[in-house]
Input
Amino acid sequence: MHAPSIRTRKIAALTAGPVAILVAGLLVWQGSLSAFSAQTQSVGNNWATGSVTLTDDDAGAAAFQIQNVTPGQTGSRCLKVTSDSTVPGIVKTYVARLGAQGLENNITIATQIGTGGTFASCTGFVPETSLPAMSLSSAAAAISNYSTGVLPWTTTGASGETKTYKVTWAFDTTGLSQVAIDALQGKSVSADVVWELQSN
Output
């Protein structure tokens, strides 16, 4: 039996390396197949903000535009407020602006919150909570922003939640002399009343 030629030895040497790598790879693959494996996952995570929406049924009109007011005169108006929010919150009412032109101490407002009634008519209004009558000047000083707002109404975040507010005004001259009453002629006052909803 003769010894392998030099050419044969070179071929054997050249193939020995790849074969060894292939065998080692197969051993690793076999080893990885024999391992235990398990996983769990949470897919499709997403975040989106909710929204707060508050409207009323006055169609952009002022609740009161009373001219030629006389001492002792009074009147009422209702406003239906609707929340179409997707998150819960609290609605409060306050006086945002006062245009004081001499009647701010003599026009009083008393506010109630309840159900039933609309801007067109207070028929069917059922009060739940009442705020005592106070002059517009006192109201503007005491309840001038959301933090000092009154008659809080908690919404749940469901669309179409409503409350009705009934505001009764009066030209109060109690305790004034005739001279003081006469001095109020030609005077006026204006105010912006705000209903604000903030999410909690």
Q: What stands out?
A: DSSP finds three helices and eight strands in the chain. The first strand starts at residue 54 and ends at 56. Residues 6-33 form the longest helix (28 residues).
